[in-house]
Design brief:
With about 180 residues, this protein is mostly beta strands. It is about 0% helix and about 50% strand. It contains no helices and eleven strands.
């Protein structure tokens, strides 16, 4: 799976953000067997003390707890998603240097390929793009869960996570 992202990672690799927005390019859509929409809710708890304020921009270190529900099976007979995805973001840069964010899906399914990015959309909002790819029971097929979530710039340590556009599940007939 190739994802052009500003902040990217494999399951526990470090990610560095420069503020630009990337585009997904998982492969030819004719390889998608079915697709279903997902709804997203949850919370973000900052690990920064004191908690960041909206005028500081996107400050993503902390825990993103993202609840995912199937909004309808779309054209899929079944949809395989976790009810909750827990993402931990840590700034690994020394104090005073440009942030270097390590992004980890702490409850990744066994054998999953995980890609994640966080970017700023202005006014303190942070956007999370999380793609989780797992093998399906049918040989050669793969489940792709694409979660898009964000939080608004509300002052305080805990913020509500809301659905971003295009959260979806896809079943692929081959590895994207």
């Amino acid at each position: 799976m190739r994802l052009a992202r500003v902040c990217s990672l494999a399951l526990v690799a470090a990610a560095s953000c420069d503020g630009a927005v990337g585009e997904d390019d998982p492969g030819p859509l004719e390889n998608v067997l079915c697709e279903a929409p997902l709804t997203v809710s949850g919370s973000f708890t900052s690990s920064v003390t004191p908690a960041p304020t909206a005028d500081q921009g996107c400050v993503p270190p902390g825990t993103w707890t993202v609840n995912v529900a199937v909004a309808g099976n779309g054209d899929c007979s079944s949809v395989e998603v976790l009810p909750t995805y827990t993402v931990q973001v840590v700034n690994t840069a020394p104090a005073g240097e440009r942030p270097n964010h390590e992004i980890t899906l702490t409850n990744a399914p066994s054998g999953a390929d995980v890609d994640a990015s966080i970017n700023a959309s202005g006014n303190g909002a942070c956007n999370l793009a999380l793609d989780v790819l797992t093998a399906a029971p049918t040989a050669g097929q793969f489940h792709l869960v694409a979660v898009r979530a964000y939080f608004d710039p509300i002052d305080g340590a805990t913020r509500t996570v809301m659905a971003g556009p295009d959260s979806r599940y896809q079943l692929w007939k081959q590895r994207p």
